[in-house]
Structure formats: C-alpha cells, structure tokens
Hints:
Elements: E1 34-36, E2 45-47, E3 55-56, E4 58-63, E5 69-81, E6 92-101, E7 104-118, E8 127-139, E9 145-151, E10 160-163, E11 165-167, E12 177-180, E13 187-188, E14 196-198, E15 200-202
Parallel strand pairs: 2-3
Antiparallel strand pairs: 1-15, 2-10, 4-9, 4-12, 5-8, 5-10, 5-15, 6-7, 6-9, 11-14, 12-13
Amino acid sequence: xxxxxxxxxxxxxxxxxxxxxxxxxxxxxxxxxxxxxxxxxxxxxxxxxxxxxxxxxxxxxxxxxxxxxxxxxxxxxxxxxxxxxxxxxxxxxxxxxxxxxxxxxxxxxxxxxxxxxxxxxxxxxxxxxxxxxxxxxxxxxxxxxxxxxxxxxxxxxxxxxxxxxxxxxxxxxxxxxxxxxxxxxxxxxxxxxxxxxxxxxxxxx
Length: 205
C-alpha cells in the first residue's frame, strides 16, 4: 500500500505566508465531482478521541456517485486540537476509500485509494486538506463507498484532530457519518444519530 504526500510544500509556522498556503487547503468553491460543505457548529467529531459523543477511534462518511468517475483526491475539513505541549511531529491522519458492507466500511480498500497528511501541516483553525492519490481511483455509480480516516497519534482527550460535520434534516442525502467504537471494526451512529454528515469533497481540480 503506497501513501502519497499532499500536493503542496509547507514551511514551519507559515513563514512565507505571502507565497505559500499555511495548510493543504483548497476553496470550497473549487469545482469538484462531489461536494458537501454544509456544517453545524459543535457537531464535529474527534479522531482517536474516545469521549462519549465526541469522537471515535476512527471516523467514516459514506457517499455515492451518480456517474462512473475517476478521482485524484479527497478533501476533508479538519481542525488540529491541542498539541501545545506535545509535538505533532511524526503523527499523521491516514485516509482510505473502502467498499460498503452492511452499511459500514468493509475493511477492503478501493484500489489505490489511500493517502495521508502530516499533522505538522495542519492549523488550529478548521480548513480543507487534500489527500491526493498516487494514481486515479475508479468509482462506480450508485455504489456505496466510505471515506475512512484514522490518526496515528495516541488516543487523547487533549491532543487530536476534529472532522467538521453537519447535523440535521438537510444533510448529505446519499450517506452518513459513523464512528468506530472501542471494539475494532465495530461502527456505530448511536451517540451522534443518523442525521450527522462529515464535510467532504471528491475530485476537486
């Protein structure tokens, strides 16, 4: 399995702000194959945060496409929390697109659909980050897929990454958010309900 670096070069503390972006960020208005950018305050969930109602070991969002497509990236709206006394160096957010099994991630990765970003490239303000694939990922229309992410850092109440989310009746109609419980590969929406969706974009140019 091959991981790829994000699409932009970063400098510590955003030293060269006039010339480079502080984050692997793209505008929510960039044309995309699929885009869900609605969000609700305080509805985000933490990755590798086991507090009830606040997150899970891993997080996932399902989606479907109306046409067969090949995509080169996934963009997620994420936020770095804490890491003021603990260094984020060496830690990552890893992403996969997986097939569906009984309404949850199957554990089977779609070919070439894995990527990661380093926490050192993230900001404490929420922003879109691009997970770019080493080669195009082919997706089939009317098929449920899952964006699945995990953090490589230790589980913590203070140092983690949030995935920004929406909660309500006007959410993304072809998917939902799930979190992984303390039992590996046991996915649930019990603490968040069935109307939660994470903010995501697919195949942005």
